[in-house]
Amino acid sequence: MNKEEILELINEGSLDISKIKMLVSDMNTVDIAEIFEELGTEKIIQLFRILPKHIASDVFSYVGSDHQQTIIEALTDTEVSEIVNKLFVDDAVDFIEEMPANVVKRVLKNVRPEKRKLINQILQYPENSAGSIMTTEYVDLRENAKVREAFDTIRSTGVNKETIYNCYVISDDRLLVGAISAKIMMLARPQDRIGDLMDTNLVFTYTTDDQEAVADQFQKYNLLAMPVVDKEERLVGIITVDDIVDVIVEENTEDIHKMAALVPTDEEYLKTSVFRHSKNRFVWMLILMLSATITGFIISSFEEGLTALPVLMAFVPMLMNTGGIAGSQASTLIIRGMAVGEIGLSDVLVVIWKELRVAVLCGLGLGIVNFIRVLITNSQNWKLCLTISMSLFFTIMMAKTVGGILPIFAKRLKIDPAIMSAPLLTTICDAVSLIIYFSFAKLILGL
Amino acid sequence: MNKEEILELINEGSLDISKIKMLVSDMNTVDIAEIFEELGTEKIIQLFRILPKHIASDVFSYVGSDHQQTIIEALTDTEVSEIVNKLFVDDAVDFIEEMPANVVKRVLKNVRPEKRKLINQILQYPENSAGSIMTTEYVDLRENAKVREAFDTIRSTGVNKETIYNCYVISDDRLLVGAISAKIMMLARPQDRIGDLMDTNLVFTYTTDDQEAVADQFQKYNLLAMPVVDKEERLVGIITVDDIVDVIVEENTEDIHKMAALVPTDEEYLKTSVFRHSKNRFVWMLILMLSATITGFIISSFEEGLTALPVLMAFVPMLMNTGGIAGSQASTLIIRGMAVGEIGLSDVLVVIWKELRVAVLCGLGLGIVNFIRVLITNSQNWKLCLTISMSLFFTIMMAKTVGGILPIFAKRLKIDPAIMSAPLLTTICDAVSLIIYFSFAKLILGL
Fold first, then answer.
1. How confident is the model at residue B14 (pLDDT cuts 50, 70, 90)?
2. Most buried of A277, A402, B128, B283 (most Cβ within 10 A)?
3. Looking at CA atoms only, how far is residue B368 from chain A in angstroms?
4. What ipTM does this complex have?
5. A290-A394-B256 Cα angle (round to 5)
């Protein structure tokens, strides 16, 4: 691998520039950027200066933000200007967002005025909005242009565009009127008019729309790019599928974190400070801890029964865990089903009906296994076995139903289902399963 | 919206064909396919027959598999042949995989022999392999061709290709030697030689590689398409980014399901039978239920202590829940961090060190809050408060550490971290937290 060879060369200290240049010329810029992750400050700057000019800014856009800062701080103003002017606007914004104020100031000072304006504009869009992930390097065409002229435009400006495969047709006042793919143009005749070939049935988004909704559209329509318009429906940018892939992964991470009762963050685990980690976890732990006061009260209120037959206590964790898992299985399926659009708000009755039947099957199976197990371990006290198995069955019935309904109700109340289900579901399942258990204990065992 | 208008027209029974044709001509094929989801069998077939020939197979590829079956069963052999021959090979495979044997037989009988061969070939690749999601409609070029000739090739065959933006250069024996984008060709001169322009530093995959690894490469290198080669490195297909977006969502769903102790499935919730749902959930519920035998034993062994001071029991659920959430927060962060490549096997010491410090902060905070709460609710028995708060603190320390380490060890043992963490982590945390609790009870309260 070229990567190992370059690392070896650099670490030996023998900066064989021509050898490194040769090795680098045959590598993907993403792989070159990876080398930086394994170097110290001094070597980072040495290697970056060796990079051929035409790939330097591309490599720079893939380097981690801490190393980007190292590089920028070591470069002269002229070098900074060269690098940043060559970055796509969306990459420049991603980079600037991670920099401290003094670096941002220096970068913006050294960027071309038109580009500075665009960067500043994108920086102002709210986080996670379509505007914040778009780029302004798109190809725009006019309705009256011929295919031949369109190709001329692409040839003269295309090198600097994020994509030339999806071109957008705008009116004189920059309103978005159509889209045309390079494929359509390549298969058309040079004299054909763009306005006659373009697609007017457009999937587009507003700058203020949420990136998650944009990602859903990309998935639904199998898009490579989507135009972004402002309030007046003027074309202001495009979003490309490579950035959407990142959005999808990011949004999934967020959902997974929320479901595990974590305050979601897009910082990397290893780069997040201990204090920040603690903050992101503390609130939900506190809520769960305090809500367990309820189960505490329920147990205390049955103290007499438990003292009379202490063995009852031994099954509380089993009941609560099985109920908890039964509930979280159901809620996870529903939350994810809603996130990918398979389950809608109107499916609540179908979900309940399905969960009830699943609960009967699972509850019966587990109830029987449990009956036998307790019969063996607890000296054939069949009344005790019945109490526990009946409680288990109804706990599963309750947990599956609540787990199925809760996320749908949350969504109906416009609360994020992923956030509310973990603590609320646990609290409900724990409390109700104890009430079921102690009720059966009173009924069957006469406590 | 055109969709509502068409639905109205169809449901009125007044099949105004020309009106529907007009409405449909202005719609995205994905949106047209959505209409079918809301129609009964008879109307589905009526509407499908009205669709203009050139979009029918495209719409067909987006229709749900149950409706695809309805349509195919109603069509004549000639019509089936027309539809399926126009489908891209990967869409044809996706469709055939969902059909019952008799439909598959009929479809394959009515497809062109060359296409049938390709479909059969792709059907043979293992599930979730690169081969199973690739398509064979790609543009291949020769090194010695000129850009002008390449464009001629694209113009004459491009209509039927899944993408014309990424073309692949092959040798006489079909070995993959390079790649060239339409952008490079459009910006080059007509007389330039493909071999001089092509990129030889290729990111490619083997037919047998896992789709998840392919998706990681797409993300890392921001690809639009990737060539797929066989064992002999001959080009056999390409994978396009739209299919990779689906893979990413699918793999994320799988991880989420595993983390909630569910056997993952790619069937939709509403379309999965009750029996199947029960099967997917039963095993892990059973394992968790049986593993709770351990906690049962621990509680039984401390029966004397609990009988002497029954109030101790009231705090067991709180301790176990808080410990459980502390552990699952840590394991979720690590599992997801490893899935997106932020945390590696070698980071185990860094993770332990970080989790220990987070646990100290969270444990101290919760311990203090808990001390005060118990002091208020349990008539100022400060020894009891101390027992519970100390147990809570050490439970959190243990849970965070185990939650952090377990997924990394699992991965080192080549076990899927998402699968093993839920049941094993719960069992360990529950058991150890009880041991901690009862030890402090003996020590501080002298039970």
1. low
2. A277
3. 11
4. 0.85
5. 65
